[in-house]
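How it folds:
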Amino acid sequence: MRKINNFIKDKKIDFKKLEEFGFKLIDNSYYYQTLLLKNQFKMSVKINLDNSIFTEIIDTETNEPYILYLIEKRSGYSEKVYKEYSDILEKIKKKCFEDEIFKANYTKEVINYIKNKYRDELEFLWEKSPKNAVVRRKSSKKWYAVILTVSKRKLNLDTDEIIEVINLHNIVEEIEKLIDNKKYFPAYHMNKKHWCTICLDGTVELKEIYKLIDVSYELAK
């Protein structure tokens, strides 16, 4: 089978949806088969638990691998095979994988907290900054959380390490108390009187972040 590279970048498997799509779990890998071009070809897809994906197309008449769809200058018959093959892969990606822009476990916990408590989803507003997102309160459409991927140097720390952070709203007096440039930082790219930045790396305990999310949500009325 042939490995497909960069097909599911920044995405994670939804194993339940794989099974609903028709994949079968065999020896820690998921397998799916379908027929192409009125049963003339059999397409097989293998997805491993590490998100690696492999495919193969077999000519059902000769029972031999069909590879002409892989050449760059396809035409006629091979182009038809490639189109059906590509359509199947796109359906699998759309139905069985979810976006995973943010990688840090803390960030995932924060996102789950927001989704479970407030039923709000991340919005990716900036094409040039695809790893930055906002969360709005439904009733007011106001932002109450901004999750960003930045260099620590942007927070005046002496390293270029890339980190995920969250910006949260609070009253001026509380922002002044919080800012210590160790756990709580002046808000990156936002009003520093009303917002602060927290690194999602374990520096601040999740329960404290959750409390501040709740405050920010209330201020977004």
